Batch of 2 targets.
Target 1
Amino acid sequence: MTIGFDSLTMEEAVSQAMAHIENRTRCRVVTPNAEFALEAKKNPRFLRILRQSQLVLADGISVVYAAKIVGNPLYGRVTGVGFAQALAAALAAKGGSLYLLGAKPGVAQRAGENLKKTYPGLRIVGCHDGYFQDAGSVVQAINNAVPDALLVCLGAPKQEYFMEDYDNVLRVPVMAGLGGSMDVLAGNVRRAPVFFQKAGLEWFYRLIKEPQRWRRMIKLPVYLWDALIWRVTKGKQT
Ligand code: UDP
């Protein structure tokens, strides 16, 4: 069973999300990488949520490579952070609003301040950290703020479960599960320099900066190996 990535440019992804905001229809955005794909193989609920999302963006370079390997290439990489920034820009142009959920206390507020500075006109209508006990009251606060879009940065699969659990209750057109993006938007974690990003080596930069992540990153080659085996034995699988 495949995840079913969307082959889109960043502009196309954002314009689809903006169309959902205009029409007030639901758009759940997920940003799978190699780690997600391996988790989805053994976690049917997670796989189902990813498959049923309206926008499935190829966040990791390994996904782009895997798609090439299986002969089903994607347009390119659409990172979660990049999507958040491009969506913020599009919202700002229309006086739209964002609610920021996730990361440690204070981080979402800082991310909100940075976004407002970078994209004047953007309205940040609420923030909440990602370490809450009472999800019901968080959902209520989000609904009371009436945002156009919600960034859910709780790590996977927690953020995908949250988006599904409250799918019927949340009155927000666009909700996007964006993992560690809040820390980047807040300026706590730096993205790799453009050279690394362009060379497809952002993972390598992150490994140098956060060597404790090696256990998670080992999943990258495992996933590519998986894709290779799939091509040899079973056909397309992205
Ligand atoms: N996080 C959270 N609540 C939790 C667990 C994690 O808000 O219960 C946050 C954590 O502080 C971090 C993000 O979720 O900001 C996950 O980051 P990670 O680097 O694991 O995500 P990735 O981008 O690698 O998926």
Note: The CA atoms of residues 22 and 173 lie 9 Å apart.
Target 2
Amino acid sequence: MKIGIFDSGIGGLTVLKRLLTDFPLNEYIYFGDTLNLPYGTKSLEDLEKCADKIIKFLIFEKVDIIVIACGTISSNLYDKIKDKYGVKIIDVLTPTIKFIKENNLESVGILGTPMTIKSKAFDKYALNSVSCPLFVPLIESGKVNSKECEDAVKGYLRELGDCDNIILGCTHYPLLIPVLTKYTKANLIDMGMCVSRCLDIQSGKEQKVTLYFSKVNDILKNNVKNIIGDKYEIKEKVL
Ligand code: DGL
């Protein structure tokens, strides 16, 4: 199958990585909109414009299915766009909510982007939710191991308070797991894992991965390498 995946930047690579492990023999086309990130503070109108361009590009590339590997677009726009393009579109939120329900998770806290938290999409299932505007800029600028990042993690966890389960409500946040686990014992839930267990993908014979980003620089290349290695070609493509 040919699977299209997109996000604002490198966050969706956490979803791609999971799918590559669970369904290795497929063709994957990834689009990270690094020119327009972060998505988490954009207006609904701007988010819709970004998603529209990317979905049309992936359809042009003849994908069979599109995975919105972005909590912000999933929580704000999925209902509006899921039937609009004549191609199957999957989001990260529906499978995550399914996971919460199926596992009867209680004592759930949410960390998400400002727009995801504003959407209230998780509110029914959570004790508390915290908007984390500092995380995506820190992650994208390669500062995951900085003191600044550690301080941000500590601050947001303090704000979230005690809970047994934390939904990493933005696909960038699994990249913070090594830092998060220093300061919380909660079970950290990765939306990529939730999506993967809901997908029914017929595998082919070989793997092909193409990574497109709307802005490529050395920091991005290094981030990509740290997440999924350097064997996949990175192409710059402005939509
Ligand atoms: N990784 C995305 C999300 O899951 C987008 C984050 C951003 O660009 O602010 O929300």
Note: The mean pLDDT is 97.
